[in-house]
Amino acid sequence: MKIQRTVLFPGILFTLLSPQLFASECNTASCEENITVESNGPAPASGTASRLGLIDQETPRYVETFSQKEILARGDRTLAETVAHATGMSGVASPTLSNSFSLRGFMPVSWLLDGMEMPGSTLQLGNPAHYQQVDVLHGPGSALNGIGATAGSVNLVSRQPGFVPSPAMLSYQLGSHSTQSLLGGGGGTLPGEKIAWRLDASGSGGNSQVQHERNRQSRISGLLLFRLTDETTLTLYGDRMNNSSDNPYFGTPLVEGKVQKNLRGINFNNLTDAKIASHATALQAVLDSALAPGLTFNNHTWFYSGYRYWHNVERYRYDTASPDTINRDSWGDLSHKNTLLANRSSVSIDHTLLGLDNRMVAGIELQTGQFDYQKNGFPGSQDIPMFSPAREPFSAETNITRAPWSKVTQRQYAAFLEDSLQLTDRLSLLSQLRLTRLNMDWRYYTPAASESQNRSFLNTGLGLNWDISSNTTLYASYANGKEAGGDIFFLSADQTHLPLTNSQQWETGIKSQFWDRKASVNLALYQLRKNNLFTPSASTPGELLAVGQQTSRGIELSSTIQPTERWEVAGNVAWTHARFNRFSAGSPPENLNGNQPAYVPTWSSNLAITWHPIHPLSLRSDLRYVGSSYNDTSNSRKMDDYITLDLAAEYQLTPKVTVGSRVRNVTNTFYSYQRTYDGQVLIAPSRTWEGWVTVWF
Is the pTM above the cut of 0.85? Predict the structure, then answer.
């Protein structure tokens, strides 16, 4: 990897040596007003790693929480940008490639909305400013959520209204490639102090470094909190999101196996009507009631509806026989429609058991979801000049449009129990159980076929916490998980009979806060194994067997520190060793035992440094390193490692007005981070600039 050191080193020195540039002093009160990284941060929300309301130190799992304050300070524009800063997280979510994140050596991750897994991918492109916080659980979460990703889960926690003053905020941003965004929000109470409300709205639009690409997004979310009685509250949530992308970027073809920098801005999906569009609606109703001292009842209902539509030419290959010529094919006209209706009822008890403090929650969960898939079969093929691809309508190559392909219905019925028992003053045991009944119905239209599968399975989690001191905890835990060998909504008819994968995770770690809670360290060591991976049969061509196995082990470390009132430092580093124990792919099958899974870097890290030279001014740098990885399971193509550096400055003009500026990818590092098809990769954005003004009312 080539790094432009002449730019990178001064960028790092900008934050490390900048005290030499400013001599002004600031007092304790004024500096603390600008603190953006807190060692003692918010606790994970209920439903991320536990439903008992445990703080992070009481949770025997590696969990990360990104507060809204931290998200805004970093300038995250999408949820994908937020979770990319999690320890060991690697990947991308773009309009063309969704949920391609790896964590602990596995892909993908599950996406939850207030503790319930959401189908589809539209949520991943949303503005994170609409959430109170974003939590990341590392490893299986099936003991809470049933069938789900082995790698981990991201829990999106909605903003909460309250009966306290909530100032309104309006922020406008202008940046490179004619990008603009507007964000506003506020809340309050209605007369009588019985109803609290909150409303947030955002919109953005702009071009990119790629020809003809233009992205637009709008979103509005609102909440109402009703104080029905002194013991009972009802909260209603509503969220509507719209996204569209004209001429979305599907990647750049490799030329003789290499990425060519001079193709960085060329869009081979330059059809006059190429498009991706989506919309999603999420509704929630939450009833909380204190039935008696130590006894509470919760009922939570979710409704989600999402639709996404693609109309593009997606695949491009370099023609070795005709230099400067690209063959593009796969004219795709397709759509996904997801719906989900779910309800969870639970009772929480805080009592003593055999003289020991005990917290317990028990409940049931019912959910039904449906996925409708339409596509046109991806016809069409065309040879075009490499540097001046033809710009024409979709219909110039094919008139075949999408038609119903499949409809999948998923139902889950579950009973769950979670218990935290305080064995001694320093030792506690967390136990989690979930019994799930999963009913799957697949209906295929081309060719016509129907399949059904009914499965029952038990997932468990067990963890032990040992408080060495009031600020330091050692823990060890075990968790298992269930997941389909492929995306359960895209299984072909002959794959539906294959069993679900089984995963087991063993984890141990330490969580500590010190220096009067101005510093923190979280360290985890883990081993995660997944069985029943789909592999092709060596004796029967076209048949898949659920006999594969993959294992990963690693170390994850995150830390925050506020050495002085002016400085804040937050960082993480992850080492991941992931390998296939038993696995094959291709036809005829190729033995891939010992290979490294695709898109899993061995090393990755993040470092954020914030400095407040004087009260109104805040300077920040964000450094990210992602190690090299392969973009195929055969390990024949390797992606280089890369480092990116972002720099930002924010100045408080008045107590209610701030202005700021940020440069992303300061060094203009050229790198690719994923492939969409074999022989093409996504090239990362080049250096960009943005400036903003924020007003509080």
Answer: yes
